[in-house]
# Entry
Amino acid sequence: MATTEPWHPFCSAASKEEYLAFYDARAQRWPIPSESTMVSTTFGDTFVRIQGPADGPPLVLLPGDSETSLSWIPVIEALASEHRVYALDHIYDIGRSIYRTQPRRPGDFVRWLDDVFDELDVHDVRLVGHSYGGWIASLYALEFPERLDKLVLLSPPTVLRPPLGLYARAILYGTVPSRSYIRRYLYWYAPDCVRHEDTRATIDEMVDEDVLARRCFKIKKREIVRPTVLSDEDWQRLAVPTLFLVGRNEVSYSAERAVRRLAAVAPRVKTQITDGDHHLTIVQPDWVIHHVLGFLADR
# Structure
């Protein structure tokens, strides 16, 4: 998809200015010094936020769908204490990345991430993915295990098929642009977050960004590649040491059933379950930090 519009991937110059003003205002809350760069890939230019000691082991963070690198604000200071952390904005989503070619199949995301690693010149990567980012991270680990040191999956959609009700809600979420429905959907996805005023404010900000992004970006939600559940064989051939984190109130599948499935088909995958919903870095940041850093340090 070639374009010469200086405001691409936004709808107009005014749309670009409006969205980036919102994004940059939120970025002011990034708690530690960082630098940023645009990394050229087959699918376009990827925005990368970099922090942590230059000689630290590389840690790459992939956010969920409709989220950006800024979703890691609650945990970034701890994660970057001993790691060189690269927090990415997805190539075909909201944020500062600029796609040229739309990813249309799962393997496209693997190629995109491999391009990012090549350009950053990182090796023995510790890869952390939340939700949709966890799906991409899983696919990458299956294709290029030699490039990874460890894999952390937070609430990924790769273990169990979601209930049919979620598909119906997701279809409406992708096609109905009203603020009221977007808010209802995101609140339903984050029952623990919305129970408390401070964490509910973060979900409200996600609603604001979602509404704004739909107005400002060309991207259409119905065109997003649907994540796939890994087969038993996939989990069994996953060679990278892996940690799976999930909240008991995960709405896209039963957390307990997911843990039981992994114990049965892939006992090498370490699993941890806690009180919380889909957004563990928001509702349980200290728990996430404890288990992620403990897993990464374990030899």
Observations:
- The chain has a mean pLDDT of 96.
- The first helix runs from residue 13 to 27.
- The two ends are 45 Å apart (CA to CA).
- The first strand starts at residue 35 and ends at 41.
